[in-house]
User: What shape does this take?
Amino acid sequence: MIPAVLAQIVVVPTDINELFDWPAVLPWGINRVVLLMFLATLATFLFLYIPFRKPRIVPTKFQVVVESMVDFVRKDIGRDVIGPESVKYEWLLIPMFFWVLFLNILEVTPLVNFPVTARMAVPAFLAIFVWFVFVFVGLKKHGIMYIVHTLIPPGVPKPLLLLIIPIELISTFFIRPVSLAVRLFANMIAGHIMLAVFFVTTASYFVLGPKLIAWPIPFAFAIVITGFEIFVGILQAFIFTLLTAVYIESSIHLEH
Assistant: This one.
């Protein structure tokens, strides 16, 4: 039973299924998750388009920031991981980094406070898309030998093939997308739960009465965790993009 104090702060659903229901907020079944994905897409487009629409000889501070972030993805992720061929995949790596970043930052955005990537369907969609990309890259470059080389690493004794082939099949074509999705989902939902706990605790002390002076403690923790979640959002965008580059590189260079 929910305590009376919390009942004054949070809305308790009569049906547990309401916690997993995404009601439409616009026609055509567009719910809050889809709407925020559109918002993140628009933010990504404007963030990458506005600074380079009319580039200046002396760049503005905003242009310097955007160029630095784009160069970081292009060089420190793309070029350092994939190599010279990374230019072919900048169309994927750069927008992906910023899109995932904006989706993550929505968790701590005032009046939104909704982590889109904490809904499993979103990281699952991204992971499946990455799966199709790195498998397509491998098949395009090496043909059927991509599958053969992936399942049968060179130098493996023949008696071990019955063990190695299933392991490589599962680890490469199933575990990769699953781990990619779960890593992003788990990190974002964990942070969201911690924020909810500390902010609800803070609010509960206000409801209990002004004589309680303990509310600054959970509120201080909530502020600290908010800053930490910004860092986690940036870090998870980096890790997701980095692993995407690693998987593409492994499809290009089979010897690795």
User: Anything to note?
Assistant: The mean pLDDT is 85. The beta strands are 24-26, 30-31. The two ends are 56 Å apart (CA to CA).
